[in-house]
Amino acid sequence: MKRRQLIKGILATGALSMVNNVDAMNLLVNDDFWSNIRNSFPKKSEYINLLNTGGGAVSNATLELLSKYQEITAGGGENKTQALNSLKESGSSQSLRQLMANTFGCSSNEIALTRNAMEGLVTGLLGLDLDKNDEIITTNADYDSCIRIIEQREKRDNIRLKLIDIPMHAKNDDEVVSAFENSCTNKTKVILMCHMFNKNGQILPIRRICEMAKKKGITTIVDGAQSIGQIDFKISELGCDIFSASLHKWFYAPKGTGILYVRKDSIENVWPIYASWSGKPNNSIEKFEEYGTVSKAISASLPSVFEFNQKIGIERKEKRLRYLRDLWLNEILKSDRVRLLTNPKKSCAITAFKIEGINPNVFSKELYDKHKISIGSIHLQDKPNFKGNYLAADLTNSEEEIYKFIEVFKAYIKQN
Fold first, then answer.
1. Domain boundaries in the chain?
2. Tens of pLDDT along 232-273?
């Protein structure tokens, strides 16, 4: 399949209707621009990683800064550089919070620096006051660790976890909103939901669910681990009470960095994991940043991460990720044995599918062992028909790598 033919096919599907065809071609097929972006990361291994949901790459510029600051801190010389000396023990600062607020769309007194998405989610799930038999609702496709956290609180505080089933290949947002609303009772106090599922990439209609929940007096917690850096949105526009995300996935930050957003009027109602020892008032977002000593080298390198992402542009990045996704998706859908497990209109880079008559685990293992291509497999235990594979190409992936997967896929289907 010629490269230009693939591009024309994508344009013909209307997947790029957000820009006209000429602009789309200029935006998405600018080899120099996207090659420069790929070259901004360390040289890749011999394996083709089409499974970028667990952790993203870090740019060379950030790695150089990180190494520099680690060398300084290892020698106890933090006071020799302003970038390190201006940071608190936790690695945060007012200027860093302002940078995060400007980028992610909220106020600087509503966003805290954390070490990962889980830390922020734990803060919300364990920090809200709940009475015996109060309910926390989440989906049976939610992140396993979050479900375990709620189950622990079930045993400790006698609250109730309610796992609900939502359409994983929803035709419209009404189906998803109704699934949440119909599950609410007068005992429902919290709704936890993924902004984007990590297995099939489905994006939930968060704003509509939050509007529904607010009318019922229900607190909303959103897991944005996969959405930050992958799709274009502002946290404040979601309408949620609490939002948590890692920066080391699609935002290209070093591991050990995350954000916690708590809406201003909700901060006072959430207990921090650690008691504030510096006397921060109960309505201060900084009370969530008092978790002891961390490596300031990581935090000091973060401005370069934000600068790198700004250079790319989140809107342009989202379109590029959808373009890379559509390169392989449009080709595999030509096989009558392929069934989608994701609505492409409700996803971005992460998209899932199943091949009739093929064991997804065997397929992903053969791709890795024989062709050095890494993809994911999905199997939800309570959904026996919802099993298959998923891909998540990133800006570190070239079109040639996508074509290689298409070639291997077609050969595998033909032989099996």
1. 3-39+313-415, 63-309
2. 999 999 999 999 999 999 999 999 999 999 999 999 999 999
Indicate if the alpha-carbon torsion angle 305, 310, 312, 314 is positive or negative.
positive
Quick one: which of 292, 331, 302 has its CA closest to 411?
331
Q: Classify domain 3-39+313-415 by CATH architecture.
A: Alpha-Beta Complex (3.90)
Least confident of 15-29, 162-176, 300-314: 15-29
Domain 63-309: CATH architecture, name and number where available: 3-Layer(aba) Sandwich (3.40)
Task: Answer for the pair 164, 158: CB distance below 8 angstroms, yes or no.
Answer: no
What is the DSSP secondary-structure string of 86-125? Answer: TS-TTS--HHHHHHHHHHHTS-TTSEEEESSHHHHHHHHH
**Of 276, 255, 361, 285, nearest to 100 (Cα)?**
285
- The CA distance from 144 to 161, in Å, is 13
Angle (CA) 368-325-206 rounded to 5° is 115
CB 262 within 8 A of CB 242: yes
* DSSP label at residue 141: T
- Retrieve residue 1's tokens: 């399949």
Structure confidence by residue, pLDDT tens digits, 363-385: 999 999 999 999 999 876 556 66
Backbone phi and psi for residue 232, each to the nearest 5 degrees, phi listed first: -90, 115
